[in-house]
Design brief:
Elements: H1 31-42, E1 52-55, E2 58-61, H2 69-81, H3 84-93, H4 117-135, E3 141-145, H5 152-161, E4 169-173, H6 178-185, E5 193-198, H7 205-220, E6 230-234, H8 237-243, E7 250-252, H9 269-275, H10 277-296, H11 303-317, E8 322-328, H12 335-347, E9 365-368, H13 379-384, E10 391-396, H14 404-423, H15 427-436, H16 441-451, E11 459-464, H17 469-490, H18 498-515, H19 526-536
Parallel strand pairs: 3-4, 3-5, 5-6, 6-7, 8-9, 8-10, 10-11
Antiparallel strand pairs: 1-2, 2-11
Helix pairs in contact: 1-2, 5-9, 9-10, 10-17, 11-17, 12-17, 15-16, 18-19
């Protein structure tokens, strides 16, 4: 084995006797769940109670969520019934908390302040690669090819800290659509371009297909050694070698790091080349601080736990079908799809570990866009729509630009939208407002009905002092641990994604049919068979 690829394994990589699926009880069968759900329905949002938790440089305001002493006590009992403390310990110890795949989910090890020697060695390899490239002013163009977890986190970090410009031109290619790779390579000088392939398995169809096009582009451009212009970040080092990537350009992504948590690994090589290794280190430091808070803070002052419990109330008790993410910071535009993947790929499950139905709604749809754009797009639905959705407002107290009026307006809009969702506007207030505008009484009563807001719509306010690598890392770890807690309470596995895998398998067969290497199977439904046959004619 290449001695540049140190092996590292979790200390307890096997499932223990406390983990088997048959020991999990569906929530509706737990008396603690009945007590929790009853307490949640009886609780209310208290407009006169301030509830703020400070964690790793972040202030989490959960004042606009239902609360009561009974709900708090029931939450603690529910967590105890789900053996939360033990499950949290197993996560950080590297136990196989992903039982359907027999794997750990040990991403916290990658940002440990005192990591294992192998992790430190790989981190040093990444940093040395960046240092040498910077010292030589090499690789003016970076083309990052990955998808899902191998893409979103890097996009987020580069957008957040490179928004004013970078000396390197960084492009991202994820989609199998040929227009994506065509646009990603267009106009670049191949002699100054580094292509980074990020794929844990090095079998990801989109990444490999786009990687082949990039290789062909390098070859056709007369680059003397095209593979010296390519890097692989993967756990499948042999496959990367077979592709042609030299050992010095293969960086380790361990098997126990889930794709949607791979930001903390060498996948962030692109981030380091784009906005510096210091940014990567700062994010790891902030995440480690949130890890320590999650491990040690008491339940009622534990930010990930309280964020998770509020989400469980909103989804499984109050039946809100979605969660809106509203970052009031232009630089966090990519945070929405990052959290969307983290939550929906992790919590889009309907069976508990023993295979029986969960019995309650899980995993809300996650969506959003930055404020104030969002206010002119869908906030009307949030305020007066028949369904509505809880909102996570995310804002930085201090800006990194010099225009005070801009930031005052941004902060004012964030607080105002949150207050409007919380307080609403009763009919009598709307009527008086309309009358004060000089509208005649009959028309005023009609118009007031259209101006009425129900209010009482839950939200969280997450305040970063300012956007830094440290606070962004802490923010991402906050959501990671929130998802873990919800998985524990719902009794589901938040670390697999079998639904996605099934679709990938079907796609392989259909691709073979479209290319003519496989007959159109009789196992397709009539519509799919029709379109496979129709599309197939396009390639003849």
């Amino acid at each position: 084995m290449n001695n540049h690829k140190p092996a590292v394994a979790p200390p307890c990589s096997h499932a223990d006797n406390d983990a088997p699926g048959e020991q999990v009880v569906a929530l509706p069968d737990l008396p603690e769940w009945q007590q929790f759900s009853d307490a949640a329905r009886s609780a209310a949002i208290n407009l006169n109670t301030l509830r703020i938790i400070n964690a790793a440089g972040i202030a989490l305001d959960i004042s606009a969520q239902r609360s009561s002493r009974e709900l708090s006590d029931a939450a603690r009992a529910l967590l105890d019934a789900r053996h939360f403390a033990r499950m949290r310990e197993r996560l950080f110890q590297g136990d196989a908390v992903n039982p359907t795949e027999g794997r750990a989910a040990w991403h916290t090890a990658l940002r440990d302040p005192a990591p294992q020697d192998a992790i430190t060695a790989e981190r040093q390899r990444v940093n040395e690669f960046v240092r040498q490239a910077d010292s030589e002013r090499r690789w003016r163009n970076i083309v990052h090819i990955g998808i899902g977890g191998s893409d979103w986190g890097v996009r987020l970090a580069v957008r957040a800290f490179g928004y004013t410009g970078m000396w390197r031109n960084v492009r991202f290619v994820a989609n199998i659509d040929g227009h994506a790779i065509e646009g990603g390579l267009a106009g670049l000088d191949p002699r100054e371009t580094l292509v980074i392939l990020a794929s844990k398995s090095f079998t990801t169809a989109e990444t490999l297909e786009n990687g082949r096009r990039a290789l062909e582009w390098l070859q056709s451009s007369g680059v003397r050694d095209p593979f010296s212009h390519m890097v692989a970040v993967t756990s499948a080092t042999e496959r990367a070698r077979d592709f042609g990537i030299p050992d010095a350009h293969i960086f380790q992504l361990w098997d126990w790091v889930g794709g949607r948590f791979s930001l903390w690994s060498a996948v962030s090589l692109t981030t380091a080349l784009a906005v510096s290794s210091d940014v990567v280190a700062g994010m790891q430091s902030g995440a480690a601080a949130m890890d320590a808070h999650f491990l040690n803070a008491p339940i009622e002052e534990n930010a990930p736990v309280q964020l998770a419990l509020a989400g469980i109330v909103n989804r499984s008790v109050l039946a809100y079908g979605s969660l809106n993410i509203a970052p009031y910071d232009f630089r966090l535009a990519e945070l929405v799809p990052y959290i969307q993947q983290l939550e929906m790929e992790s919590l889009g499950k309907s069976v508990i570990l023993d295979g029986r139905p969960v019995g309650v709604p899980t995993g809300p749809a996650v969506w959003g866009m930055p404020g104030t754009d969002a206010q002119h797009t869908f906030f009307q639905w949030l305020h007066q729509g028949s369904d509505g959705a809880p909102v996570d407002f995310i804002v930085c107290q201090h800006a990194d630009h010099g225009w005070t009026s801009h930031h005052q307006g941004l902060l004012a809009n964030c607080l105002a939208q949150r207050e409007a969702l919380l307080r609403g506007k009763p009919f009598d207030d709307a009527l008086q407002e309309t009358l004060d505008e000089g509208v005649e009484p009959e028309r005023a009563r009609w118009l007031a009905r259209h101006r009425t807001h129900s209010g009482g719509r839950p939200s969280n306010l997450i305040v970063l002092s300012r956007l830094s690598p440290y606070t962004l890392g802490a923010l991402l770890a906050l959501y990671e641990h929130k998802v873990f807690v919800q998985g524990v309470v719902w009794g589901i596995n938040p670390f697999d994604q079998w639904g996605v895998e099934y679709g990938k398998k079907l796609a392989k067969n259909i691709t073979a049919s479209l290319s003519g290497t496989r007959e159109i199977g009789a196992d397709h439904d009539i519509s799919t068979a029709y379109w496979v046959n129709t599309f197939r004619s396009s390639f003849k």
